[in-house]
Model the fold of this input.
Amino acid sequence: MNPIYIFRHVAAEGPGYFGTFLARHGIPFQVIHLDRGEAVPTTLDQISALVFMGGPMSVNDDIPWIEAELALIRRAVAVDMQVLGHCLGGQLISKALGGSIGPNPVKELGWLEVRKENNPAAADWLAGLPDCFTAFHWHGERFTIPTGATNILGSRHCPHQAFVIGNTLAMQCHVEMSAAMVSDWARRHAQEIARPTETIQNFAQLTQDLGQRIATLQSHADTLYRRWLRTLIDV
Done:
């Protein structure tokens, strides 16, 4: 099969566990390093699916590759190609499809609960997951749900945590985390998490029981990634 293209916006937010998942199942992928100046493809030729990772920038920033990514997402959704977004990636998908991105009332930085929405799309895409589970979060903005899409996950402080449309899954939360990524982000953003709140956790809180938390999160990620790939390949 043709490779899945994974778009990296900053070095600290690469494929993470998603890359591990693909490698375990023998699924080819290619990382497009936008942070190194690599170009966004202008066509979908020789590409199986598109995946967009996170980043500290806003989709509303004046960055040249943002418009190129938005155009590519629109092309992919139009032909029902698999598209997946993590955090910034989910916001890119929302904006590409007519949604808007703006400040969330609070920052969500840490291990926080998400809940399934009560609709058929959530029952399909989240089958096998608990009604409520803990995901990892690292965002200050949030997306709206584009016309034609369905919200499938929410949280207490951010009602739009994931939406689906066709073969596209856009997530505000992070399920691609590894233990090393959590520790790295906590160190990089030490000032931002120095004063914990209800939705911001400090280093000790972020790394408490980290091995078990990551194992559980990656188990949930397996379920989501398998569902996303269902019409492309059997995993």
In short: Residues 78 and 87 are 22 Å apart (CA to CA). Residues 4-229 form a domain with the Rossmann fold fold (CATH 3.40.50.880).
